[in-house]
């Protein structure tokens, strides 16, 4: 059961210490992680953590002064002392006319979002070790060229969140996060290749079978053997779902209201405009049952909801918390993300690119010549201009057929142009954590290589 | 614009069953500025600068420290407003001194970490004593430099830090070790066992990784390139340890045409192969510089502060990921 007693106490202490407004967040986490490599257990890690974060506001002539403090000492008198310190720090900070807590919009009910299966708390660690071991075995069974691995990791984490604000809301929720990750190494002709696959779920039963995770990771690594560069050229590029998700993550950072109000996003000032092809619809929904990004309320107690960000190519909304919304003269979308020791920031909940009707094979077959990108790496993305240039690996396509694996190339362009040039979106929506994307094709991007 | 200061004071006590008992105080300060500028036609650009180290807060609060960072960020942002699209393809690349040392960190440093080497998943595994770089290339990892962001008196297992020669005159001479991997490989720890916090496991990690100075004049190195790229600032990189492919993104780069630095270019990314890239080094400047103290390295979900350094360097035939032919 969630106990809001301590967070309520913290908020009351802040008021007594002289704060005009305050909110408090308590997070209690319990996590285990086991890594198996080959048949050997590499490590087992357990961590139990509890943190209380207190944010206080003190009124000044031109707005509120703010401070955020956090502690792992949850004794009630220690929390009272922390509140005194927080108010003292706040008095030393600059006023901000846009700072402050939301006064309404709090979650009126806390829906059941299937964020955990209580039975999973009793799951023995040995079972998670066995899952990692099964993924390792399955990976090695795929092909004799799977000779090594970085190990397979199984992890489980249970979080309990309690929140209270002086504006009159308090509540809490619990959730779990289970993952299984495999990363085998394939080797041939003196060259090594690795790739990964993972499954993540709110319940152990929701995880993909360990054998399937190991197998898919191994198949991807083997498929990359013999990769080579291709000549520099502009071609159609298909982003396979895992790479498409990485492009979506770049887009999400540009849809963040905090980037927008600072004019640090190329999408700033373009609400309502056409920014992408008709095939592009992007949705954020904090209340998907069992979603890795689901939560009944956000980091400011606001009810989470469904927000269409891009609707058939038109920019419909940004992701907003209270501060970004005030800066932009808009209303929060319930996208404040907050850890106990950090101030709220804008972030997605469950965010996905809506799938289309084609299969990935349809996209490949209809591509005369181009690159199927199976993985992206590097941080070559500038949200202010939308320019990106990222390292890529994948498979070369000639006359609608996969020909050979490709590595050591970059794909570069502008995210705005890329979105407009999306001509087909596949049906293979893949969730990796709280972001989901299907494969999609872009009419033309520059591939740089030999 | 956005400015932030992070000031941290860590008191560390390490005890181990082998009798290790070490205490250390580890201050760390860092100042960051981000500038966004808007030019004609509403075009916007961004630039970031940062710096700091293991010192008291007063150092970064002194105008003499932050003013040059602010000036540099403004200069870079305005410069990027004028930048033209970056060429794509294989070019000769000149890296400027200092922060471009992130190339070493990504291209070779990670692949020399003892865990990847022991497991045989690094492209550098089993290559001790072999040539992995051009003659004249010497790369060291040194955790003992006073006040540097990546420096430590002792690593997080209590092993004193040291200067480890990784590559000497082009020959691979050493790996970076924590206690576990050193023991399993039958070698000595090098003071590179680091962990983000007590809740994380120690792993072999870099401290300050840099290439020693050579003899070439930096201006002469640029003049030696007929058609290429001069890259002086980077925003970060990543490496695939196993196949050795690394990528890093330039935040300040120029075309080199007939030995002269010409137009600034935007969106330049360099991609290459770690075990191969340093064999393509053809000139090494005498101007070794360390970075300003802004780097954080991520590995297996753990971030630790690191430093890098480089003299002006010419690398022949590196793939540049731009958009123009």
Task: Indicate the topology.
The complex is a heterodimer of chains A (450) and B (325).
Chain A: H1 5-16, E1 21-37, E2 40-60, E3 63-71, H2 76-91, H3 125-142, E4 146-165, E5 170-188, E6 191-194, E7 197-201, H4 210-223, E8 233-239, H5 241-255, H6 257-261, E9 282-285, E10 306-311, E11 314-315, H7 322-328, E12 336-337, E13 345-346, E14 351-353, H8 360-365, E15 369-377, E16 387-398, E17 401-414, H9 415-420, E18 422-425, E19 430-432, E20 435-437, E21 440-448
Parallel strand pairs in A: 8-15, 14-20
Antiparallel strand pairs in A: 1-2, 1-4, 2-3, 4-5, 5-6, 5-7, 8-21, 9-10, 9-14, 10-11, 12-13, 15-16, 16-17, 17-21, 18-21, 19-20
Chain B: E1 2-15, E2 21-38, E3 44-53, H1 57-61, H2 63-81, E4 84-85, E5 89-95, H3 102-109, H4 114-119, E6 139-142, E7 163-168, E8 171-172, H5 179-184, E9 193-194, E10 203-204, E11 208-211, H6 218-223, E12 227-239, E13 245-257, E14 260-266, E15 269-273, H7 274-277, E16 281-284, E17 289-290, E18 295-299, E19 302-310, E20 313-320
Parallel strand pairs in B: 4-14, 5-12, 11-19
Antiparallel strand pairs in B: 1-2, 2-3, 5-20, 6-7, 6-11, 7-8, 9-10, 12-13, 13-14, 13-15, 15-20, 16-20, 17-19, 18-19
Summarize the structure.
Chain A is 22% helix and 39% strand. Chain A is of the alpha+beta class.
In which range does the helix fraction of chain A lie? 10-25%
* Separate helix tally of chain B: 7
The helix-strand sequence of chain B is: EEEHHEEHHEEEHEEEHEEEEHEEEEE
Structural class of chain A: alpha+beta
Average pLDDT taken over every residue of chain B: 94
- E-strand count of chain B: 20
Order of helices and strands of chain A: HEEEHHEEEEHEHHEEEHEEEHEEEHEEEE
Oligomeric state as shown: heterodimer
How many helices of chain A in DSSP terms? 9
Helix content of chain B: 10-25%
Q: What is the first-to-last residue Cα distance of chain A? A: 60 Å
- Average pLDDT rating of chain A: 96
User: How is the biggest beta sheet of chain B arranged?
Assistant: 7 strands, mixed
> Which pair of chains has the greatest number of interface residues, and how are they split between the two chains?
A-B, 47 and 44 residues
- Rg of chain B over CA atoms, rounded to whole Å, is 20 Å
**In angstroms, what separates the terminal alpha carbons of chain B?**
34 Å
Using the alpha-carbon principal axes, give the shape of chain A: globular
């Amino acid at each position: 059961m969630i106990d809001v007693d301590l967070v309520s106490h913290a908020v009351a202490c802040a008021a007594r210490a002289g704060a005009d407004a305050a909110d408090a967040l308590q997070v209690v986490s319990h996590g285990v992680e086991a890594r198996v490599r080959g048949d050997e257990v590499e490590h087992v890690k357990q961590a139990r953590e509890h943190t209380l974060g207190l944010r206080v506001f003190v009124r000044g002539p031109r707005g509120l002064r703010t401070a955020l403090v956090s502690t792992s000492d949850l004794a009630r008198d220690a929390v009272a002392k922390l509140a005194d310190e927080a108010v003292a720090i706040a008095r030393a900070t600059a006023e901000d006319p846009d700072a402050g807590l939301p006064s309404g919009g709090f979650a009126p009910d806390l829906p059941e979002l299937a964020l955990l299966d209580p039975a999973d708390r009793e799951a023995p660690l040995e079972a998670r070790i066995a899952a990692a071991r099964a993924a390792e075995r399955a990976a090695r069974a795929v092909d004799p060229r799977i000779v090594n691995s970085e190990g397979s990791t199984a992890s489980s984490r249970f979080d309990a969140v309690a929140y209270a604000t002086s504006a009159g809301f308090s509540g809490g929720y619990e959730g779990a996060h289970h993952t299984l990750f495999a990363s085998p190494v394939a080797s041939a002709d003196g060259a090594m290749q690795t790739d990964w696959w993972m499954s993540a779920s709110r319940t152990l039963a929701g995880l993909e079978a360990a054998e399937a995770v190991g197998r898919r990771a191994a198949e991807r690594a083997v498929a990359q053997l013999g990769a080579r560069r291709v000549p520099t050229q502009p071609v159609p590029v298909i982003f396979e779902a895992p790479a498409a998700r990485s492009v979506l993550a770049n887009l999400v950072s540009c849809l963040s209201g905090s980037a927008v109000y600072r004019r640090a996003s190329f999408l700033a000032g373009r609400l309502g405009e056409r920014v992408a092809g008709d095939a592009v619809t992007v949705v954020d929904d904090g209340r998907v049952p069992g979603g890795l990004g689901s939560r009944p309320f956000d980091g400011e107690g606001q009810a989470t909801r469904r927000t269409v960000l891009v609707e058939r190519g038109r920019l419909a909304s940004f992701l907003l918390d209270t501060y970004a919304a005030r800066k932009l003269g808009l209303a929060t979308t319930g996208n404040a993300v907050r850890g106990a020791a950090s101030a709220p920031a804008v972030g997605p909940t469950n965010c996905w690119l809506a799938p289309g009707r084609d299969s990935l094979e349809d996209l490949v077959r209809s591509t005369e010549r181009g690159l199927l990108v199976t993985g992206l790496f590097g941080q070559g993305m500038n949200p202010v201009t939308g320019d990106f240039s990222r390292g890529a690996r994948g498979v070369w396509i000639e006359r609608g057929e996969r020909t050979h694996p490709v590595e050591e190339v970059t794909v570069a362009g502008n995210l705005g142009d890329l979105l407009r040039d999306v001509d087909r979106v596949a049906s293979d929506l893949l969730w990796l954590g709280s972001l989901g994307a299907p494969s999609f094709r872009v009419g033309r991007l520059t591939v740089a290589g030999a | 614009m956005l400015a932030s200061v992070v000031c941290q004071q860590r008191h560390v006590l390490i005890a181990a069953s082998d009798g290790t008992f070490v205490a250390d105080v580890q201050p760390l300060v860092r100042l960051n500025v981000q500038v966004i500028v808007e030019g004609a036609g509403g075009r916007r650009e961004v630039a970031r600068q940062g710096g700091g180290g293991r010192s008291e807060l007063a150092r970064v609060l002194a105008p003499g420290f932050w003013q040059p960072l602010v000036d540099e960020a403004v200069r870079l942002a305005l410069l990027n407003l004028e930048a033209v699209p970056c060429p794509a393809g294989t070019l000769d690349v000149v890296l400027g001194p200092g922060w471009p040392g992130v190339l070493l960190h990504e291209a070779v440093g990670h692949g020399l970490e003892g865990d990847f080497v022991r497991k045989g998943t690094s492209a550098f595994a089993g290559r001790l004593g072999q040539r992995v770089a051009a003659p004249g290339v010497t790369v060291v990892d040194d955790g003992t430099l006073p006040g540097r962001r990546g420096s430590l008196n002792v690593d997080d297992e209590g092993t004193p830090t040291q200067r480890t020669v990784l590559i000497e005159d082009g020959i691979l001479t050493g790996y970076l070790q924590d206690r576990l991997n050193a023991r399993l490989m039958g070698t000595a720890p090098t003071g590179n066992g680091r962990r983000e916090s007590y809740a994380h496991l120690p792993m072999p990690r870099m401290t300050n990784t840099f290439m020693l100075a050579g003899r070439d004049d930096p201006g002469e190195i640029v003049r030696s390139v007929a058609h290429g790229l001069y890259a002086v600032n980077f925003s970060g990189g990543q490496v695939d340890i196993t196949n050795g492919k690394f990528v890093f993104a330039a935040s300040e780069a120029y075309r080199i045409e007939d030995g002269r630095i010409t137009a600034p270019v935007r969106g330049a990314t360099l991609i290459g192969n770690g075990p191969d890239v340093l064999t393509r080094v053809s000139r090494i400047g005498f101007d070794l510089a360390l970075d300003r103290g802004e780097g954080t390295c991520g590995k297996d979900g753990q971030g630790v502060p690191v430093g890098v350094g480089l003299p002006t360097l010419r690398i022949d035939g590196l793939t540049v990921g731009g958009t123009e032919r």
